């Protein structure tokens, strides 16, 4: 499977990178979070993925959705590059990651190409290219 979507989000594989983006401005709740995680798990096919996650259109997230994401969001991933739509969000996201140690490489970017380059570099370091 190379593509899956619902009314809020779409996932696809592009040059061995699992990509996703919200289709429009979106407020995430726990129910949406669970559905999106299930979709990502379905397209991943049980294989740890290098993940390009564009959250530029994510307007807000409930506490329950954040808690669910913290518990399950990095499962089945080898690394994750998160695309945000401002330098301030990028700074805040990366600061959050430094304070809350995660078990895989994760970094926020404001430019898609830099995020993809970083993921390919991580893949190379892991010997998966």
How far apart, in Å, are the first and last alpha carbons? Answer: 20 Å
Number of strands: 8
Helix count, DSSP H or I runs of 4 or more residues: 4
* Average pLDDT score: 92
How would you spell out the order of helices and strands? EEEEHEEHEHEH
- As a percent range, the share of strand residues is 25-35%
Radius of gyration: 14 Å
Q: In order across it, which strands form the biggest sheet? A: 1-2-3-5-7-8
| Name of the CATH class | Alpha Beta
Report the principal-axis shape.
globular
CATH homologous superfamily caption: STAS domain
> Would you tell me the structural class of the helices and strands?
alpha/beta
CATH fold assignment: Transcription Regulator spoIIAA
Number of domains: 1
Per CATH, the architecture is 2-Layer Sandwich
> Poorly predicted ranges (pLDDT <50, ≥5 residues)?
none
Instruction: Please give the share of residues in helix.
Output: 40-55%
């Amino acid at each position: 499977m190379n593509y899956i979507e619902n009314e809020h989000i779409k996932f696809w594989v592009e040059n061995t990178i699992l990509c996703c983006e919200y289709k429009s401005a979106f407020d995430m709740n726990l129910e949406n979070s669970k559905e999106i995680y299930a979709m990502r798990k379905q397209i991943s096919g049980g294989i740890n993925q290098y993940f390009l996650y564009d959250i530029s259109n994510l307007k807000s997230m409930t506490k329950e959705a954040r808690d669910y994401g913290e518990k399950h969001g990095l499962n089945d991933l080898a690394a994750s590059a998160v695309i945000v739509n401002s330098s301030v969000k990028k700074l805040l996201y990366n600061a959050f990651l430094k304070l809350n140690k995660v078990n895989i490489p994760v970094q926020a970017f404001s430019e898609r190409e830099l995020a993809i380059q970083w993921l390919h570099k991580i893949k190379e370091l892991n010997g998966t290219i």
